[in-house]
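Predict the 3D structure for this chain.
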Amino acid sequence: MAEEETGDFLGFIEVKPHKDFLSGVEQGNIVAIAVSSKGEGKGIGKSLMEKAEEWAQQFHQLVLNVFAKNDRAVNFYKHLNYETEVLKMVKEI
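Done. Predicted structure below.
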């Protein structure tokens, strides 16, 4: 969790171990990440991602899910050198 000295909430990240269903590879998984409006533009997201990457060194891979239409988040992750590996296809019935 990221806070200012005043105790104001700036953001959080939740990570956990994950075993890939198909390959059996143990990975770190970013379950959730959020930055408050007060924390935006201050490097909070990048700092939280760096902490997650430090934690995930034991796994050698860190994975996350992001909505394809969330351009802002997709571009943020691409800027941090994350790559698309799987595309989830959906059809409304």
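The first strand starts at residue 2 and ends at 3.
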